[in-house]
Amino acid sequence: MEEEEKKQIRDLEDLPGVGPKTAQKLREAGIFSLEDLAVSSVHELVEKAGLGEETAKKLLEIAQDYVGQGFVSAYDFYNSRKAVERITTGSKALDDLLGGGVETQALIEAFGEFGSGKTQLGHQLSVNVQLPKERGGLSEPDKPAQAVYIDTEGTFRPERIVQMAKGVELDPDSVLKNIIFIRAYNSDHQISIVKKIPSLIHEGKNIRLIVIDSITAHFRAEYIGRSNLAERQQKLNQHLRDLLKLATVYNLAVYVTNQVMAKPEGFFALDQQAVGGHILAHAITYRIFLRKGKDRTRIARLIDAPHLPEREAVFRISEEGVRDV
């Protein structure tokens, strides 16, 4: 596509063959921008937006060309990675384990037994994302960062947010106002919530973090037995793809907690593994296994990461929040 043509395309309606009705169908399917369109699939456009297959292919080709989704050199990709930002966990040891903090354009999963710190970390990140960038957050002057907290198990506590906000010297009321909270009551509701997040962003919300606590609870409860396993994994896979698209297109971080189940052959000292199987394992960018340590400490083990070695870090959870030992 010529540069002059690109300048003339600013909205969905500017695309050849896209009128107000088609644009409305795309928005109803959660596609609000050319960037959203470029990371969609033909199947999604046909099934969710009601487009014909040939029209869908043509629109995808134009959108992908517009946002530059062609072949690039590793050098250019390396430079594009400089847009990635990081959120501090509150613990330097835990930040170092993750290569500098929780990364945008990525999915981070924490799994472990009850009381291992998964939910606490989700609360802490919802606070810390609101810190100014020089303090490890993603807020800019006059543009505070916001978090979406999706609670599937009834574990969100605003009182804990207040404690943590005071611990990093932020105004608790402002912090609470910048956390968009919603309770998800089943897996379909959870999926639909995530699909509505682009509309919040296009309404002006500065969402830089999504927390889901926990991502597998509803799927595990609703799809019981081997006969339902394939359907469960298919829906979970699509849900994870939606989250990864959000993280990539909008340069935000996604932090999810996960339940554990017994693993007969043993898994570290706790004989546990994360729920979700290979579908979840392959979709997640960073996997952290949390367990309790001595004297109220927590041990985080980095299980999987694209460019970091498997290793451990020790941190503690105090009244003020996640801190170094």
From TrEMBL:
Belongs to the eukaryotic RecA-like protein family. It comes from Nanobsidianus stetteri. Involved in DNA repair and in homologous recombination. Binds and assemble on single-stranded DNA to form a nucleoprotein filament. Hydrolyzes ATP in a ssDNA-dependent manner and promotes DNA strand exchange between homologous DNA molecules. The gene is radA. Gene3D superfamilies: 5' to 3' exonuclease, C-terminal subdomain, P-loop containing nucleotide triphosphate hydrolases. GO terms for biological process: DNA recombination; DNA repair. Keywords: ATP-binding, DNA damage, DNA recombination, DNA-binding, Nucleotide-binding. GO terms for molecular function: ATP binding; ATP-dependent DNA damage sensor activity; damaged DNA binding. ATP binds at G112, E113, F114, G115, S116, G117, K118, T119. It comes from the Archaea. This is DNA repair and recombination protein RadA. Residues 83-260, 265-325 form the RecA family profile domain.
